[in-house]
């Protein structure tokens, strides 16, 4: 081998390349550690929103302090993103570098729709659950109450929007919506009345039950005060409970109706 000039030249060239690469890497490392590349500013931008209502610079600083390491070259952008997304009310964050010593963080804030379940979580307008101070959310608007099986958040929110439209002719507004473990729906309205709609056994069943209720409700409301609950799960009638209600054969709500009222049953 030592007498093979060709092999010796190849080995020498290879060693020379390795030395040059090592020197280049050392130079890059040295350059990257220069003070001019130390992170000096993290600038906050807003995604697709006019303003951030619940996220402020003090909260961001206290929540991310100590989690952002490295300089312009060595900071891990994914780690920075996760640090900002762990801040209450932050839905999404994107991070990019800006030469020579700055990071730009764009934030999107959760828009609260209501509360979910009994564990203090909030439901966003996108049907996503998040944890934040409920008292802060209540400053925005009245918070409807939602509940349902795990993974049903978007379905519950979609149904809530439909129910708002369906009850609009009665000038009643849903304030709470629950989906049971058996996938039966119950809605509470802003007059304090709770309506059991049952399971959705066909595509139009819930809409038909609400339509049946909206058709009969004005007559019920004129004859019965303080209706507590209405059960619309009966195929051709309904059941209800009201303060001080005592159903008898001569009760005006079931005797000689002016408009063919469906059968009414008293709830136990």
Description:
By secondary structure, this protein is α/β, with parallel strands linked by helices. It is built from six helices and 13 strands. A ten-stranded mixed beta sheet has the order 6-5-4-7-8-9-10-11-12-13, covered by helices on one side. The protein has a three-stranded mixed beta sheet with strand order 1-3-2, with helices on one face. A hairpin with a 6-residue loop joins strand 11 and strand 12. The protein is elongated, with a radius of gyration of 32 Å. About 6% of the residues have low confidence.
- DSSP helical segment count: 6
Shape: elongated
Determine the oligomeric state from the structure. single chain
- Radius of gyration, CA atoms, in whole angstroms: 32 Å
Helical residues, percent: 25-40%
Strand-pairing-aware structural class: alpha/beta
Strand order of the largest sheet: 6-5-4-7-8-9-10-11-12-13
- State the end-to-end CA separation: 102 Å
Beta-strand fraction estimate: 25-35%
Give the low-confidence spans.
Answer: 247-261
In sequence order, what are the helices and strands, one letter per element? Answer: HEHHEEEEEHEHEEEHEEE
Mean pLDDT: 84
Largest sheet: 10 strands, mixed
**How many E-type strands?**
13
Task: Please give the structural blueprint.
Blueprint: H1 5-32, E1 41-46, H2 57-64, H3 77-85, E2 90-98, E3 102-109, E4 112-116, E5 121-124, E6 129-130, H4 134-138, E7 145-147, H5 153-167, E8 174-179, E9 184-189, E10 194-199, H6 205-223, E11 227-231, E12 238-242, E13 264-266
Parallel strand pairs: 1-3, 4-7, 7-8, 10-11, 12-13
Antiparallel strand pairs: 2-3, 4-5, 5-6, 8-9, 9-10, 11-12
């Amino acid at each position: 081998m030592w007498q093979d000039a060709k092999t010796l030249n190849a080995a020498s060239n290879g060693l020379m390349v390795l030395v040059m690469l090592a020197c280049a890497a050392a130079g890059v490392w040295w350059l990257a550690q220069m003070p001019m590349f130390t992170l000096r500013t993290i600038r906050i931008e807003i995604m697709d929103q006019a303003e951030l209502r619940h996220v402020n610079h003090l909260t961001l600083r206290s929540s991310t302090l100590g989690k952002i390491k490295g300089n312009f070259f060595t900071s891990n952008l994914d780690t920075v993103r996760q640090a900002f997304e762990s801040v209450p009310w932050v839905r999404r964050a994107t991070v990019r570098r800006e030469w020579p010593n700055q990071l730009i963080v764009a934030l999107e804030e959760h828009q609260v729709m209501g509360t979910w379940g009994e564990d203090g979580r909030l439901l966003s307008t996108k049907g996503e659950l998040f944890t934040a101070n409920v008292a802060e959310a209540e400053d925005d608007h009245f918070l409807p109450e939602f509940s349902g099986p795990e993974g049903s958040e978007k379905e519950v929110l979609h149904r809530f929007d439909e129910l708002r439209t369906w009850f609009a002719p009665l000038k009643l507004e849903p304030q709470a919506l629950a989906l049971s473990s058996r996938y039966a729906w119950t809605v509470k309205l802003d007059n304090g009345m709770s309506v059991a709609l049952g399971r959705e056994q066909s595509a139009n069943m819930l809409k038909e039950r609400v339509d049946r209720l909206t058709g009969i409700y004005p007559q019920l409301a004129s004859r019965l005060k303080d209706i507590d609950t209405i059960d619309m799960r009966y195929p051709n009638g309904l059941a209800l409970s009201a303060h001080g209600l005592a159903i008898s054969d001569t009760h005006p709500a079931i005797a000689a109706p002016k408009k063919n009222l469906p059968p009414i049953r008293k709830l136990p």
